[in-house]
Amino acid sequence: QVQLQQSGPGLVKPSQTLSLTCAISGDSISSKTAAWNWIRQSPSRGLEWLGRTYYRSKWFNDYAVSVKSRITINPDTSKNQFSLQLNSVTPEDTAVYYCARDRGVGSTLFDYWGQGTLVTVSS
Amino acid sequence: DIQMTQSPSSLSASVGDRVTITCQASQDISNFLNWYQQKPGRAPKLLVYDASSLETGVPSRFSGSGSGTDFTFTISSLQPEDIATYYCQQYDNLRVTFGPGTKVDIK
Predict the structure, then answer these.
(1) Is A70 exposed, middle or buried (0-12, 13-18, 19+ CB in 10 A)?
(2) Does A115 touch chain B (CB under 8 A)?
(3) Please, which pLDDT band fits residue A75 given cuts at 50, 70 and 90?
(4) How far apart, in whole angstroms, are the C-alpha atoms of residue B96 and residue B79?
(5) What is the per-residue pLDDT across B63-82, written as a single tens digit (0 to 9) for each?
(6) Are A110 and B32 a contacting pair at CB < 8 A?
(7) Taking CA atoms, what residue in B is nearest to A65?
């Protein structure tokens, strides 16, 4: 059974960096089929896919156009986890952030999710 | 970007009713369409993938159909535990987008 456990601060000041971590159990960050994603949800923007990291003989990242200039998703093979960094945050980045697995067979879908982290951007 | 619309935005139905939600894509997405259920305070849960395939462990009262631009999600007999918001999600060329959701409650 795959489990994703999120951690990170719930309050970030404007212009600073939002950082979250997602620890994986029951699967490997280096899986050659799965991809590891960050998705956020807010009343104004709904569910919004932010990006993913995945391993196919080397590491790849894909990011949503809306955050591409500010986002980094990194794998950590030593701890079997991956992280999200979102720079230069504004109150518009206030949302519940989820990590999620795409099992990588067929279309892109999200079959396991973290518990969600409410991140508020406020001074 | 492909835009997803869902209708209705909300509905009320009685226990045992058949409930139907539609999702429309702004362009052809073949069958790359998934459906999720989200209960308050919880992460979304995958119910149907590739338009019509039921995820393992999901009750058979849930089903999906469609291809191209028009898709349908059905609950054949609404149960009290089905109260939730339902989202469609598409994937096309590195872009993932979700529909705005349909909130389902009991009349």
Answers:
(1) middle
(2) yes
(3) very high
(4) 30
(5) 999 999 999 999 999 999 99
(6) no
(7) B95
